[in-house]
C-alpha cells in the first residue's frame, strides 16, 4: 500500500509518469539519429560499426518497452491490463537489456583484440564476425526469456521461479558486468602502454598519414572505454536492486520501502541514461560522427529552402517570364535585327552609287 501511495502521489506521477517517459523519448530520438549516421557510407569503414548499430537497436527497444507499463499505469483507464502487459512485455525489455550488455562486452573485447593484435584483428574482427556475434547475442537474449513465458502458462513452483530469476540475473546483469569490469581494466592498462606518454615520441618518427591513423585508433579506443565505463556505472544500482530482490526475506518496513522505491527510481533512471548516452559519447569523441551530423543538418536545411513556398513562387514567376520571353521574343528580335541590317546595307549601296 505504501508503494502504491508513493507511485500514485504527485511526486511519483511527475517522476515516473512524466520525467522518465520524456527521457525515453529523447533517448529514442538520439538512437535513431545514431542509426541513420552509422548507415552512412563513410561511417561503415569503422571497425565496430555493425556492433554499434546493434547496440543502438537494443538501446531503442529496452527503454521503450520498459516505459509501456508506466504509460498504462498512469494514463490508461483500465488498471487490470497493466498486470497482463507486465507479464508479456517486460521479458522483452529484459532480453533487450541482455543484448545491450553483451554487445558492450563484445565491443570492448573486439577493441582490446584490435589494440593487442592489430595484424590478426583484420581477420578475426571483420564485419562478418561482427554480424555473427550480433546474431548469437540476439538469439541468446530471446532464449533467455522463454522461462518467463513458460512460467505464465504452466505456473511453476516458487523454488523454480527463484532459480529462473537467479539465472536471468546472472546471465543478463552479473555476468556481463563482471566481464565488462575486467576488460575495461585490461584495456586501460594496454592503452597506457601502447598509446600513452611512453610511445608519444614514436608519432614524430612516422609519416603524417601513419601518425593520423594511430591517433584515430586511439580516439576510437577512448570512445569504447567511455562506453564501457558508463555501462559499468549505470548497471551498478540495477545489479544491487536485483541482488536485494533475490535475498529478500519478506519483512518490509517503512524505511525499507522508501529505500526500495528510491533505489528503483535510481536504477530506472540510470538504465535510461545508459541506453541514451551513446549519442553524446559518439558526438564528443568521434570526428566523423560530428561531420556526418553536420552534413545531415545541411542537407535538411537545403531541402527546406528548396521546398520553401515563397521561393517556389518566385521560381515559378521567373520561369513564366522566361517562357514568355524565350521563343517568340527572341524570334521577333532576330527578325527585326535582320531587317535593320538589310535596310542599312541598301542605303549604303544607294549612297555609293
From TrEMBL:
The chain crosses the membrane at residues 14-38, 50-76, 88-113, 133-150, 170-192, 223-244, 259-285. The keyword Disulfide bond does not apply. Residues 30-282 form the G-protein coupled receptors family 1 profile domain. The keyword Phosphoprotein does not apply. GO terms for cellular component: membrane. InterPro entries: GPCR-Ligand_Int, GPCR_Rhodpsn, GPCR_Rhodpsn_7TM. GO terms for molecular function: G protein-coupled receptor activity. Its main location: membrane. It is found in: Membrane. Keywords: Membrane, Transmembrane, Transmembrane helix. This is G-protein coupled receptors family 1 profile domain-containing protein. It comes from Didymodactylos carnosus. The lineage of its organism: Eukaryota, Metazoa, Spiralia, Gnathifera, Rotifera.
Amino acid at each position: 500500500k505504501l508503494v502504491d501511495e508513493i507511485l500514485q502521489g504527485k511526486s511519483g506521477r511527475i517522476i515516473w509518469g512524466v520525467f522518465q517517459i520524456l527521457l525515453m523519448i529523447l533517448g529514442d530520438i538520439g538512437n535513431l539519429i545514431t542509426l541513420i549516421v552509422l548507415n552512412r557510407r563513410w561511417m561503415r569503414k569503422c571497425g565496430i560499426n555493425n556492433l554499434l548499430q546493434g547496440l543502438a537497436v537494443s538501446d531503442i527497444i529496452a527503454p521503450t518497452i520498459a516505459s509501456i507499463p508506466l504509460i498504462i499505469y498512469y494514463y490508461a483507464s483500465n488498471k487490470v491490463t497493466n498486470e497482463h502487459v507486465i507479464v508479456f512485455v517486460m521479458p522483452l525489455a529484459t532480453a533487450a537489456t541482455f543484448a545491450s550488455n553483451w554487445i558492450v562486452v563484445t565491443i570492448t573485447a573486439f577493441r582490446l583484440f584490435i589494440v593487442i593484435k592489430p595484424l590478426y584483428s583484420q581477420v578475426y574482427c571483420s564485419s562478418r564476425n561482427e554480424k555473427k556475434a550480433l546474431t548469437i547475442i540476439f538469439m541468446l537474449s530471446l532464449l533467455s526469456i522463454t522461462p518467463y513465458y513458460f512460467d505464465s502458462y504452466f505456473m511453476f513452483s516458487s523454488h523454480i521461479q527463484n532459480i529462473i530469476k537467479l539465472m536471468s540475473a546472472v546471465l543478463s546483469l552479473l555476468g556481463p558486468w563482471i566481464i565488462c569490469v575486467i576488460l575495461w581494466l585490461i584495456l586501460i592498462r594496454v592503452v597506457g602502454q601502447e598509446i600513452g606518454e611512453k610511445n608519444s615520441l614514436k608519432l614524430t618518427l612516422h609519416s603524417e598519414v601513419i601518425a593520423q591513423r594511430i591517433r584515430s585508433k586511439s580516439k576510437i579506443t577512448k570512445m569504447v572505454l567511455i562506453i564501457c565505463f558508463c555501462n559499468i556505472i549505470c548497471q551498478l544500482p540495477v545489479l544491487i536492486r536485483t541482488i536485494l530482490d533475490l535475498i529478500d526475506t519478506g519483512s518490509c518496513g517503512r524505511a525499507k520501502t522508501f529505500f526500495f522505491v528510491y533505489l528503483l527510481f535510481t536504477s530506472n533512471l540510470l538504465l535510461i541514461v545508459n541506453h541514451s548516452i551513446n549519442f553524446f559519447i559518439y558526438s564528443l569523441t568521434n570526428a566523423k560522427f560530428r561531420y556526418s551530423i553536420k552534413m545531415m543538418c545541411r542537407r535538411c536545411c537545403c531541402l527546406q529552402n528548396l521546398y520553401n513556398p515563397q521561393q517556389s513562387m518566385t521560381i515559378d514567376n521567373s520561369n513564366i517570364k522566361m517562357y514568355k520571353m524565350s521563343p517568340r521574343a527572341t524570334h521577333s528580335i532576330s527578325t527585326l535585327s535582320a531587317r535593320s541590317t538589310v535596310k542599312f546595307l541598301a542605303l549604303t549601296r544607294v549612297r555609293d552609287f
